[in-house]
Amino acid sequence: MPCLRFALVPLTMLALAAVIPAAAAATDSEPIQLRYDHHSFSPLTVTVPAGRPLTIKVMNASRETIEFESFKLNRERAIEPGQAISVRLPALSSGKYDFYDDFHQDVPQGTIVAR
Question: Which residues, at least 6 apart from 56, have a Cβ–Cβ distance to it below 8 Å?
Answer without folding.
Answer: 31, 32, 33, 34, 46, 86, 87, 89, 112
